[in-house]
Specification:
The protein is an alpha+beta fold and about 325 residues long. The protein has helices spanning about 10-25, 65-80, 90-105, 125-130, 155-165, and strands at about 5, 85, 140-145, 180-190, 195-205, 215, 220-225, 230, 240, 245-250, 255-265, 270, 275, 290-295, 305-315, 315-325. A hairpin with a 2-residue loop joins strand 15 and strand 16. Residues about 1-5 and about 10-50 have low confidence and may be disordered.
C-alpha cells in the first residue's frame, strides 16, 4: 500500500507563534508573555477559563488523537523531554483549525478573517478564542495525509507524528521544552480516497533538564522515517528529499550553536550532515535553543545509524553520540 501525502505544513506561522511568545519571554519563553489579543473578526469567550490540563488523556480509544498522543509522548519521554498533557481548549482550537484547512482547501498555519471557519489568525489567537490564555511559548503545526487506501484511525494518528518528526523544522514537536498539547483533525476525501487534515499545538515552555542539550532521535529510538519530502519551506541543501533529521534542544533560555554532525551506517559508511541553528538557518525559523542536523538525501529503511554531533550550549562545548534505527516509513 502506498501512502501519498498531498500536503504538509507551512512553517511561517510556527515561527510567528514562537516569536510572539518569546517577545515577552526572555528570548525563548523563559517567563510568561502577555496573552495575544484575538485577531480581528474572531469572537472571544466572555470569560476565558484557561482550562486545566488533564492528567489522563480523554481521547477516545482507537482514535487518531490517542494514537498520536501516545506515540509522541512515548518518544519524547524516551529522550528525556517532558511528558505532554491534553488540554481541551487547545483540542478545540486545533480541531477548528483542521476544519479551516478542510473548508478552504489550503495548507497554512494562519487563518484569514472572513474565510469559512475562521477562529483566529494565529495559533495563539485561536487558543485564546477557546479560552486558553496562558502564553509562555507555543509551537503550532498543521498538515495532512492523502492515501490511496483506508488506514485505521490509529495508523493515521501515528503517521501524522512520523510526518512531523521527519521535518527539519517540524521535528520540534518531539524535541521541545513544552508539557501541554492540543490535537485536532478532520477527515475528508480527495479523488474518492481518504484525506486527513490535522493540527497540533504544544505550549508552556519551561526549564526541563540540567543535562541539556537533549536530542531526538536519541539512543534506542526506532521506527522513525528514513525519507521525507513536502516540507515548506524545503530544508536547505536538499533536492526535495532528505533523511532522518536529528533535533538538538536546550532549555528555553539556552543558546545552541551546531558545529559538526555525521551519521555512520552498519557498513561504516560516514554521511556528513547539514547542520543548522538559529544563526545558520537561512529561513530564520529556528529559535536560539534549537539546533538540527540532517542527511541531505534519504537514508535506508529498517537500518541502524550512529550519530555524532558537536556544538556549544551557552558557549560551552558539547558532544553527543548515539544510535537509532529507521523504520519502513516515509515522512
Amino acid at each position: 500500500m502506498t501512502i501519498q501525502k498531498n500536503f504538509k505544513l507551512s512553517m511561517a506561522a510556527i515561527a510567528a507563534s514562537l516569536l510572539v511568545a518569546a517577545c515577552g519571554g526572555g528570548g525563548g519563553g523563559g517567563s510568561d508573555a502577555s496573552p495575544a489579543a484575538p485577531a480581528s473578526g474572531a469572537s472571544t469567550p466572555a470569560t476565558p477559563t484557561n482550562p486545566a490540563n488533564l492528567t489522563t488523556p480523554q481521547y477516545p480509544a482507537d482514535s487518531f488523537h490517542l494514537a498520536a498522543f501516545n506515540l509522541l509522548n512515548q518518544q519524547r519521554q524516551q529522550c528525556g523531554f517532558p511528558a505532554l498533557q491534553e488540554n481541551t481548549a487547545l483540542d478545540q482550537a486545533t480541531a477548528a483549525h483542521a476544519q479551516y484547512l478542510a473548508l478552504n482547501s489550503v495548507v497554512t498555519d494562519t487563518e484569514v478573517s472572513g474565510n469559512p471557519g475562521f477562529t483566529g489568525a494565529t495559533f495563539v489567537d485561536r487558543a485564546a478564542h477557546f479560552g486558553y490564555t496562558q502564553n509562555n511559548g507555543s509551537i503550532g503545526v498543521s498538515g495532512g495525509i492523502y492515501t490511496n487506501a483506508t488506514l485505521t484511525e490509529t495508523q493515521y494518528g501515528q503517521e501524522a507524528v512520523y510526518e512531523f518528526e521527519s521535518g527539519v523544522y517540524h521535528i520540534s514537536i518531539a524535541a521541545s521544552p513544552t508539557n501541554t498539547i492540543g490535537i485536532g483533525k478532520v477527515a475528508t476525501t480527495y479523488n474518492g480516497f481518504p484525506q486527513e487534515q490535522f493540527s497540533m499545538q504544544l505550549t508552556n515552555f519551561q526549564q526541563v533538564t540540567t543535562n541539556a542539550p537533549l536530542t531526538f532521535p536519541c539512543q534506542g529510538t526506532t521506527g522513525v522515517a528514513y525519507d521525507s519530502f513536502g516540507e515548506m519551506p524545503t530544508p536547505p541543501a536538499t533536492s526535495g528529499h532528505w533523511g532522518t533529521p536529528v533535533a538538538v534542544a536546550g532549555n528555553p533560555t539556552d543558546t545552541i550553536v551546531m558545529q559538526t554532525g555525521t551519521m555512520t551506517d552498519s557498513s561504516s559508511h560516514v554521511i556528513a550532515l547539514q547542520v543548522l541553528d538559529s544563526a545558520k538557518d537561512p529561513n530564520k525559523l529556528l529559535l536560539p535553543w534549537q539546533g538540527v542536523a540532517y542527511p541531505t538525501t534519504p537514508l535506508s529503511p529498517n537500518s541502524q545509524y550512529t550519530v555524532s554531533l558537536t556544538g556549544t550550549i551557552n558557549g560551552v562545548a558539547f558532544s553527543r553520540t548515539f544510535s537509532f534505527t529507521t523504520g519502513n516509513v516515509i515522512g
